[in-house]
Design brief:
By secondary structure, the protein is of the alpha/beta class. It has 2 domains: 3-145, Aldolase class I (TIM Barrel, Alpha-Beta Barrel), CATH 3.20.20; 154-314, Endonuclease - Pi-scei, Chain A, domain 1 (Beta Complex), CATH 2.170.16. The chain is built from 6 helices and 22 strands. It has an 8-stranded parallel β-sheet. Helix 1 packs parallel to helix 6 (134-145) and helix 5 (110-118) packs parallel to helix 6 (134-145). The longest helix has 12 residues, at 134-145. It starts with a strand and ends in a 7-residue tail after the last strand. 38% of the residues are buried.
């Protein structure tokens, strides 16, 4: 998960409130101001006397030349390093990011933030927003917190739909109302996922619950922010999950509740060429996948040969993290 901090030096109550209300991870403040932050809400502080000690756990380095790069790299082995550059050159950041996961970049615009988050595809660990424009601060926080900007969904053809017995299925209730075409990625394996639609569709049986995804069996994987995965059975209140739209746009959503109940299940298999994706879902009319055009389709209406959206990743997982080793899942 990328971090986003807001520089509130000199002290600015308005900036702290903007950071707090828009979901920033921390604020950088002058010494002696942590109690004022605590009066406004629960928010981590970076300061000589803050939660993260500036000068000890966090250091700031201005990159003027190769010596500064080397110093930043050395410091990043034990600390978080905030780097700044007067003319905002990308090359020094590339050199640092290639060798460290503890580099944050000072940015002052959404464009700078986008660039920093994409450098070498890996991007910086986070950004420190240095701006006096509250609207700009809010925009950058939303940009960072939205997760990956876009992922590549692919069309797959249904090969099999088969009724199974009873099983424990998971409903994930988020603190976000999802729109038409949005849901979460779920699959039987850690490398292939269907886009399972939210319960935002009106039907004769129950009222829409756009915050909910009836996601699948307890064993299934789902994709989290930052490219991690977790079993549905591991998801709990307060976690973050990745919400995905039919065009691949993503956003992070906080989990507000998880329900596990015994229900009749069915198996859905699909493929694109040699790549296969499968998932065990509840056997009910209100459970939907997503067609390529973005429209939801009930699993009880799906037929062999029809197309839906899926997401593929390479490699296996170890405790939810990608690993480069030979793993077969079937």
């Amino acid at each position: 998960m990328k971090k986003v901090w807001v520089d509130c030096r000199p002290w600015s109550k308005k900036k702290v409130l903007a950071a707090l209300e828009n979901g920033a991870d921390a604020v950088v403040i002058p010494a002696g101001k942590s109690k004022l932050v605590a009066q406004l809400g629960r928010l981590k502080t970076v300061s000589p006397d803050g939660d993260l000690k500036l000068g000890r756990k966090v250091v700031e380095i201005e990159i003027k030349g190769k010596e500064d790069e080397e110093r930043a790299l050395a410091q990043s082995r034990e600390r978080t390093v905030i780097v700044r550059s007067r003319d905002w050159k990308i090359i020094p950041l590339e050199n640092l990011i290639a060798q460290s996961d503890s580099i944050m970049a000072e940015v002052s615009s959404p464009e700078e933030a986008k660039t920093a988050l994409k450098i070498l595809e890996k991007g910086v660990a986070g950004v420190l927003i240095k701006s006096g424009d509250l609207a700009r601060i809010k925009k950058i926080i939303r940009l960072v917190k939205s997760g990956r900007e876009k992922i590549a969904l692919e069309k797959v053809k249904i090969r099999e739909i088969r009724e199974l017995g009873m099983g424990d299925r998971v409903c994930v209730d988020t603190c976000t109302n999802m729109k038409m075409g949005e849901g979460i990625l779920v699959g039987n394996t850690s490398s292939a996922f269907f886009l399972v639609h939210s319960e935002s569709v009106r039907n004769p049986y129950v009222e829409p619950r756009p915050f909910r995804v009836n996601a699948g069996g307890v064993h299934a994987y789902t994709v989290l922010p930052g490219g991690r995965t977790a079993y549905l059975s591991e998801i709990s209140i307060g976690d973050e999950i990745l919400v995905v739209g039919a065009k691949g746009r993503t956003q992070n959503a906080v989990v507000g509740r998880v329900k596990i109940e015994k229900r009749p299940m069915l198996l859905v298999r699909a493929a694109r060429g040699k790549r296969e994706v499968s998932l065990v879902l509840q056997n009910a009319e209100t459970i939907r996948l997503v067609r390529p055009a973005g429209r939801p389709v009930s699993v009880v209406e799906l037929g062999k040969g029809e197309e839906v959206l899926a997401y593929f990743e390479e490699g296996g997982r170890h405790f939810g993290i990608k690993v480069k080793e030979s793993i077969t899942e079937k």
